[in-house]
Amino acid sequence: MYTTIFYIILWLYVFEFIFSKTLSYLNTLNWSDKLPTELSGIYDAKKYSDSMKYEKVKYSFGTISAVISFFVMYFVLIFGWFGYLYDLISTYTTNEILRPVYFFWIIVLLQTIFSLPFSYYFTFVIEEKFWFNKSTKKLFFMDTIKSLLLSAVFWLWLLSLITWIYLKTGDNFWLYTWIVMTFFSVFMMMFYSSIIVPLFNKQTPLEKWELRESIEKFALRVWFKLDNIFVIDWSKRSSKANAYFSGFGPKKRIVLYDTLIKDLSTDELVWVLAHEIGHYKKKHTIQMLVFSIIQTGLMLYILWLALKVPEISYAMWSSTSSFAVWLVAFGLLYTPISMIFWLLWNILSRKNEYEADQFAWINFNPTDLKNALIKLSRNNLSNLRPHPAYEFFNYSHPTVLKRLNALSEIKK
Ligand SMILES: [Zn+2]
Predict the structure, then answer these.
(1) Active-site annotation holder among 276, 311, 353, 391
(2) Which domains are seen in the chain, by residue range?
């Protein structure tokens, strides 16, 4: 029985790799040296050719690192190293809560060490080459260490709690875990900006006077309280610009990258805010939260059904049946369903982007809106023409051309 499960896991893993690499390959078919006609005259040729070069470098790098990671994981699976690791830990401790904690902590640690050279190369060679990187080596390593410690604190705590629930509760395991995870994600959503972000960045309330006045005028018109707009010191890591909306209720806030303030004119910035306020007014954050809660519930229910097959953990070649190893195997078996959710999430997110644009269009100056969109895409060297299949599956935001087209539709 468990050899069959093992082969299913292996084939699913191979399938996912081939699928994602095929999508990336399709993207290369859309490469063109010609600037899209809709943008000629408003998008400079130099920037366009840079964006193509950036795309090509990222593709080669992505392919090489994906192939290496694929084979490493492939060997981990066929040699049964997950099972081996758990057996090894079991000789050191018999504590049922600590075993999974050590197990996952070692996996996270090894995974971080393995991916370090890749992210180092990406930051200090690729991003550097295209003038995006502003990070120092010290900052880079500090970030890595902080992320590791963070995952130790949050995830391992959550994991031991889930293991404890698993050991203590019988049939209602999935329901209790769902409640715990829902609390956890609501908590994270509310306090992400005040607990996690400050560990990496400084956020200051928006002060620039002129900007504040334009924003105040706009915010007053759409009934949005202003105390919640912050500027984040993104420029210490990258020159890329962005903005986002996070939290809800009293904990809602709009965060602008300082790089964005440098790049855009005041009116263009007000557009970015208008777009983010649009996300808030259309209740997108709540909607995405509900989506992820439903997704978690469904996953836990399937997980609970699958728990009736303890052999799943033997498919990782461990000598005993254990919840932690079982979880790893289940995670791999769950891949097709998580791919479907990933797709649905992106579809929903793209729909929300159009809605937020529409809100900004109705409530603010359309010209600034178009200019800001073009400027952002140009400065970040965004891919203007991803392959439709790749875009459909992987893009959380529509491309700039699609967003501009959608805006022209509103005009009619
Ligand atoms: Zn948006």
Answers:
(1) 276
(2) 42-202+281-411 (no CATH), 203-267 (3.30.2010.10)
